Amino acid sequence: MSNNLLKGKKGIIFGALDENSIAWKTALKVNEQGGEFVLTNAPVAMRMGSINDLSKQTNSLVIPADATRIEDLENLIEKTLNHFNNKIDFVLHSIGMSVNVRKGKHYTDLNHDWLAKGWDVSAVSFHKLLQSLYKMDAMNEWGSIVALSYMAAQRVFPNYNDMADNKAYLESIARSFGYFFGKEKKVRVNTISQSPTPTTAGKGVTGFDGFINYAEKMSPLGNASADECADYTITLFSDFTKKVTLQNLFHDGGFSNVGVSQEIIDIISNKS
Ligand SMILES: NC(=O)c1ccc[n+]([C@@H]2O[C@H](COP(=O)([O-])OP(=O)(O)OC[C@H]3O[C@@H](n4cnc5c(N)ncnc54)[C@H](O)[C@@H]3O)[C@@H](O)[C@H]2O)c1
After folding, report:
1. How many angstroms is it from 15 CA to the middle of ligand 1?
2. pLDDT tens-digit profile of 210-219?
3. Which of 23, 34, 137, 271 could cross-link to 7 by cystine, CB 3.0-4.6 Å?
4. Are the C-beta atoms of residues 77 and 69 closer than 8 Å to each other?
5. pTM, whole model, 2 decimals?
6. Which of 14, 19, 22 to mutate to test the pocket of ligand 1 (most atoms within 8 A of CB)?
7. How far apart are CA 144 and CA 182, in angstroms?
8. Beta-carbon neighbour count of residue 207 at 10 Å?
9. Residues with CB under 6 A from ligand 1
10. Class for domain 10-268, per CATH?
11. How many CB atoms lie within 10 A of CB 59?
């Protein structure tokens, strides 16, 4: 159902790899709400994924960019501004990758070159993106920039590995850069801390099935799906959240504020 919440708004969506991706679902919902956007992903992901199907479906341009390369980001932003002949209103950073997670390296035995690579992709790329948008004065006033995070930034989830540290850094960048973006350009910057979600990145975490089932049993409203995350992101891109900035917003069915649920107590007391 469309309320045209994003009618007239233009933006950039990073990270739609396949139809399970949170960015993919968000692109569909933005399109449904009347927003227009450029889709982007790393050149290597373009070959693996199916972004061209999404671009046809949403009538949007695809411009490849490795989010760790400033020259790629500047090229993407410049081409987007030319394409719309206007500044932009929203950006979704939906990017994450850890080489240590991929290769099954334990947190107590990390390869620090791989750590640096994952940190660059998952966290520093957000600073590079914000800095490029800021310097190129690419955002309209009251624009909105959102990145996706996970609660391992605040609490321990043993298998989340070095991604926990990357998310803590990402959330900090949202606050630190968001201050200047707010002051100088009236642009808001937030992170959404999403429930575990069955995507390529999500399923790469060791023990993901246990992880997602546990969160489902702990959350009073159950886990938030990728579709629901997309809905929430729409609200943050809309004009109804103009004064929300520098926040890490939990979108997790209530998980983050529950100590323990009765369902979990019953399971560990062998009552169910
Ligand atoms: N799936 C979950 O359980 C979950 C939970 C909370 C937060 N998140 C976060 O949501 C975001 C999206 O992940 P997803 O779950 O949709 O998985 P996904 O695998 O579909 O998306 C990750 C994306 O990152 C892109 N990417 C990797 N390296 C890149 C680079 N150098 N330049 C540009 N793009 C690059 C990939 O190509 C892919 O499109 C990530 O930040 C992830 O950490 C996911």
Report:
1. 6
2. 989 999 999 9
3. 34
4. no
5. 0.98
6. 22
7. 10
8. 12
9. 14-15, 17, 21-23, 41-42, 45, 66-68, 94-97, 121, 148-150, 194, 196-197, 199-202
10. alpha beta
11. 8
